[in-house]
Design a protein that fits this description.
Strand content: 25-35%
Order of helices and strands: HEEHEEEHEHE
Shape: globular
Largest sheet: 6 strands, mixed, barrel
Number of strands: 7
Distance between the termini: 44 Å
Strand order of the largest sheet: 1-5-2-4-3-6
Radius of gyration: 16 Å
Helix content: 10-25%
Amino acid sequence: MFRTSTLFSLSVLSLFAFTTQAATVFNGEGTFYSPSVGFGSCGHQNSDSDLVAALAQSTMRLYNPSNPNNNPLCGHKVKVWETSKPSNTVTVALMDTCPGCHGNFDLDLSPAAFNKLDDPDVGRIKISWEFVEPVTLKTGPFAGAGPSTTRPKNACEGCKQEMLAQSEGTETRDEL
């Protein structure tokens, strides 16, 4: 049962991310939290001044549900920008899990990271983000994601229209 539901989740999430020759861009909401209250799910203690983020629990669990300290997403750097202000960017390391994030590609940012994008009084912003370096993961929504990478072809050759119709949450961005 668990294996079937995990595979189903991976299949569904993989429909939400696709690329061509451009970088994979993920869209979600950005909030902020205090990473200094304890150890993050990746097993490290960070401070509020560190440029770190927590990724939505629904997505983090796909890669290592039994031991989050060994999650292969831990430490990957992503470039984040507020969707309405794409010139404001910040690069953060994925170091924690966000249990309160509702969207699969939402990020909970450290105060230092959020401050680079917007005023904390705003509280919640629409964000876009991409991996800084190619990801070596072979499954899930991040398989082959990264700047200037091409994801492997989907096993379902006839699903292109379905993927496009269901791709809310991701887009592609041409290299600058």
